[in-house]
Amino acid sequence: MSKHMFFHREIDQLKDMVITLGTLVEDRLRRACAILETQDEEESRKIMTSDWEVDDMEIRVEEECLKILALHQPVARDLRLIVAVIKINSELERIADIAVNLAKRILTISEKKTSDFVYVLDYQPMAAKIMEMVKTCLDALVTEDAALARQIFLMDDEVNRARDQAYKTVIEEIGRQPADAACLVNLYLIARHLERIGDRATNIAEEIIYLVEGEIVRSSEDP
After folding, report:
1. DSSP class of residue 121?
2. What CATH number does the domain containing 71 carry?
3. Which of 20, 181, 194, 195 is deepest in the core (most CB within 10 A)?
4. Contact in structure between 66 and 196 (CB atoms under 8 Å)
5. Could you say which DSSP state residue 154 is in?
6. Number of domains composing the chain
7. 47-51, 59-63, 122-126, 203-207, range with the lowest pLDDT
8. In 73-145, alpha helices (H)
9. 218 in a structural domain
10. Domain contains 223
């Protein structure tokens, strides 16, 4: 096998690896969003203890990128691909970390709430939107579709508005449920975690545009 063919086989393997990581992250995120509705403490603990799988895959992807850089010294679009994958790899791992944080918040609320505590926020529309953002990112990465990646920016605006509304709701509710003020703050922090996942998805979209078009793009609201 020629060096050129070997290089492109390694590139294809790298793409498969980062998509596998994305699938793992999607699964963690889906499970974390589900417990926002069920408040399932057992499932929350399972999410918290399974994070090693994502961490392990993230390390493997990074090591593969560094190996390709060292052995083949890619240039032009191939180099952009490696740079983009390194950054996307990191963003995916952070999304998985935030999914763990969501599980931790649910446990904290369950442990500290009073018997009269009311969950005043419906996270399902916001959770559905950030899951759509992550899926769209992965689809755009597979197809190398910059136009699809740009749709993420509009979705992120919706998520930011939902976060702002969650903040207003929690502030108003603290006056009605003062004994559960700490739990209400944690409710807002859940919305904040979801918004941060949107930020991470936006960063991935920016890297896809860079990969496809060679243009460095930054959205209007970067984390």
Report:
1. -
2. 1.20.58.220
3. 194
4. no
5. H
6. 1
7. 47-51
8. 76-112, 124-143
9. no
10. no
